[in-house]
Design goal:
Elements (H helix, E strand, L loop, with lengths): L10 E5 L28 H13 L4 E5 L9 H9 L6 E6 L8 H6 L4 E5 L5 H8 L4 H14 L4 E7 L8 H5 L12 E8 L19 H5 L4 E2 L2 H7 L18 E4 L6 E5 L12 E4 L4 E3 L8 E2 L5 H13 L19 H4 L2
Parallel strand pairs: 1-2, 1-10, 2-3, 3-4, 4-5, 5-6, 6-9
Antiparallel strand pairs: 7-8, 8-9, 10-11, 11-12
Helix pairs in contact: 1-9
Bound molecules: S-adenosylmethionine and iron/sulfur cluster.
S-adenosylmethionine binds next to strand 3, strand 5 and helix 10.
Length: 341
């Protein structure tokens, strides 16, 4: 469906839980967030109903996110239900991969096509410090298992934090050296600018670094042709929008001789709003036409035509652009763990 700006809205990011097994410094408070009550979270049937209605309106790609989607009980069954919805052509998931290894085969068999795995460091101690809980080896085991289970090429999302992980850019980028055929099956490593939302909204300015510093750290990177980029990339975790028909928000580069790509995602220093093709639904059933706006439309209790019409109205009301930048925090009332990135 076209919104009022003529953007073709084809992509739904669905948060299936607000809970997470990590407490990443930039995303969640150390003690976690007040847990939503069971009845506040969308049931499997409600999630399926929303995806059906969205598919009727032209949504073709679904990304399952959270919180951490793999902590939602019955996630394999949920993937099976959602991937069977008529009209949905691709189902992807954004995950920290800590629980992925034992579930990878079942998720693949249930119809999950692709994974984006969040990984901000390759240093085990630093990983534990950033995630406040996670064990790097579990995430790497998840990546290996995904490759063995036959997932499409996996992308790594790495949030750049000045003075925290910027010294690891080369090492992280090198995960793409062997591409999808490598041990971890990584086709692209995408570096994402930290967005001032939730926990990190009050962080010092020097933590917010432009993604272009990746080009300083890896001067040999060469831009990938647009046509190749369209085939190889799709939208990023936190970035506000995607080059809809072209396929992605990441600016793609390749090191000569590497099989995979290195992506730069600039939600802060560039705006993608004019090409944004996505809407989001939070775990408690609120549709967000824009990640960085406070506007939310409740879908709770709706079904049939009423549900479809409400989603259609929300798409039509999608704002032209957001106003977040280095001096203005996101206007969203929620942190990323609640929205799903
Ligand atoms: N738990 C899953 C994960 O970490 O992949 C899915 C949800 S998480 C909210 C989705 C993505 O949002 C992650 O890649 C995370 O790094 C990113 N993210 C969270 N807060 C962010 C922020 N303030 N700026 C940029 N990216 C952020
Ligand atoms: Fe959890 Fe993902 Fe947020 Fe980290 S970024 S705390 S893994 S929801």
């Amino acid at each position: 469906m076209l919104d009022s700006e003529g953007r073709n809205i084809r992509y739904l990011r669905l948060s299936v839980t607000d809970l997470c097994n990590c407490r990443c410094l930039y995303c969640m408070p150390a003690d976690g967030v007040p847990k939503l009550r069971h009845e506040q979270i969308l049931s499997f049937e409600e999630l399926e109903r929303i995806v059906r209605a969205a598919a009727c309106l032209g949504i073709r790609k679904l990304r399952i996110t959270g919180g951490e989607p793999l902590v939602r009980q019955g996630i394999v069954e949920l993937v099976r239900m959602l991937s069977s919805v008529e009209g949905i052509e691709e189902v992807a998931m954004t995950t920290n991969a800590l629980r992925l290894a034992p579930m990878a085969q079942d998720l693949r068999a249930a119809g999950l096509d692709r994974l984006n795995v969040s990984l901000d460091t390759l240093d085990p101690e630093r990983y534990h410090r950033i995630t406040r809980r996670g064990n790097l080896e579990d995430a790497l085991a998840g990546l290996r298992a995904a490759r063995q289970a036959g997932f499409g090429p996996t992308k790594i999302n790495c949030v750049l934090m000045g003075g925290v992980n910027t010294d690891e850019i080369s090492r992280l980028a090198a995960l793409a050296r062997d591409g999808a055929e490598g041990e971890l099956g990584v086709s692209s490593v995408r570096f994402i600018e930290l967005m001032p939302m939730g926990e990190c909204a009050v962080w010092p300015r020097d933590r917010f670094v432009p993604a272009d510093i990746v080009l300083d750290a890896l001067p040999g990177l060469e831009p990938v042709e647009r046509e190749l980029a369209a085939a190889g990339d799709e939208s990023a975790c936190g970035a506000q929008g995607t080059a809809s028909e072209r396929g992605g928000v990441a600016e793609l580069y390749r090191m000569p001789g590497w099989k995979g790509t290195v992506g730069l995602i600039h939600p802060m220093s560039h705006r993608f709003c004019s090409e944004c093709n996505r809407i989001r639904v939070t775990a408690d059933g609120r549709l967000k036409p824009c990640l960085h706006s406070s506007t939310e439309i409740s879908l709770r209790g709706l079904s049939g035509q009423k549900l479809t019409q409400t989603i259609a109205r929300a798409i039509a009301s999608k704002p032209r652009q957001h106003h977040m930048d280095a001096t203005h925090a996101s206007e969203s009332l929620r942190a990323m763990n609640e929205i799903g990135g």
